[in-house]
# Entry
Amino acid sequence: MARAMWRGAIQFGLVTIPLKLYLATESKGISFNMLHATCLNRIQMRTYCPFHEETISRGDTVKGFEYAPGQYVVVTDDDLASVPLKTVRSIEIEQFVPARDGGVPRFAKQAYYVEPDPIGRKAFQLLRSVLADQGLTAIAKVVIKDREALAALDPFGSTMLLTTLYWPDEVRPVGELSLGEDQVEIKPAERAMAEQLVAAMTGEFDANAHRDEYRDALSSVIEAKVAGREVAAPVPLEAGGNLVDLMAVLEASVAALHAEKRAAPVAAVAAPTDEQLAAAVAAEAAGASETAAPLAGAGPASRRAERRRKTA
Amino acid sequence: MRPADGPGPFDDPDYFFEPWWPGVPVLAFVEEHHLRLQAEELADVLGTFPELGALVEHVEAERAVVEGVVMVIDRSGRPDQRLLHRRLASDEDRAGHAAFIATDLLIVDDHRLTARGFASRRERLSGILQEGEWCVVSRGYPGEGHTLAAAASELGFAAVSAHRLAARYRHGPAGDAWLRLPVDPGALPATPERRLPPILAVFSRLPL
# Structure
């Protein structure tokens, strides 16, 4: 396990459980370095002061809070250390809520595994087992990286998982979305079909059944390049063909079949003439309020093919 | 309108035959440059086929309801069921290119055409749809079911569609107004939909 990200203690009531937090997740995305295109050396991001027109070291920087455009107040590490927070070194449990409470939406930032110090193991396991047995989640506050975060503490296997959450005022209201739910009328048949679809796709979640296929493909490309092999260009699936060509193929196929029929000794069933079709339309449209146009049931290319057939 | 299954190809001057395009039947609602693609009994599938949003630019009417089929075509312009199923399985998948084949016109501007015959509706459809590389009016032939079936078979299509030229548009079962005719009835499994994976269960109810 990597080094602990945080040391402190769970506090609830008079109980204190010293522990450490470890990152529960890691990004496996493939990252790239920026190189100078001409020499392929890594470029450097230097800290530059436009006032002194010189490159400075990070040690020469301080934290500044912009309280007005272009106006800053300097905040030092001492200032941060003096912030009167109860949760600076503790996970302060505020309340316990049902673990699967749908009314408590969670917008998670980061998950941490919790490892109790030896002296706190018994209390830790006691808390974990009670939460598990009663199906509860502890809602807590904790300061990590100079920021106080709302967090949820859940039993997770033999340990617990601390998940930092966005504060309510960091969550955008859904009212910004155009949903129009009051304008939607769902018919019983539609609901029944949706329920069937959901039922057909319902199963146990298995994370191992899902893979980052893009990362796998990209890794293959990179490995091939490293090995000096020719990289097979992926099929540009986004690019589609031309549907008009398909229609042309269909028309050509029909035209060829017509030609075969004309050559055959047995007469084929004759297609109706334009006059016959126009008569069908006229008869049908007699009761309609609009003026019926002459029939041209197929598209323009089809009509061309029809003319070709007749004039052939 | 839901088609009825027919026994196989036939020739009849009262019918208009076209390929049974292998895709998702939809109703395209165009109103004031907004588009809604409603699959049968399902919600808007425009999110699955976002490139069809430009369909509004091809409809030369302020308001129209066009019946058609959404397919996903490959680089050669042929419909690809595998790409289509990938799209349907994930809104993130952008495989191939979505294409729209218009087959019927129900409403245009202030005119409701459902009381008119199919031939008349189809004529109006050809007049309002500006065709493009991925947006066309279906091609078909009146009277010649067998010829069309042979051509469709060469293209790898399993069935042809037969619209009775004089039939009005019907909501629900079409009866003899619209038939789905297997090109080779003996070659088709009785219930091909059951072979689809569960994720496509809902689409198995659609006349794909």
In short: Chain B touches chain A through 65 residues (CB under 8 Å). The CA atoms of residues 50 and 122 of chain B lie 26 Å apart. The first helix of chain B runs from residue 81 to 89. Chain B has three helices and eleven strands.
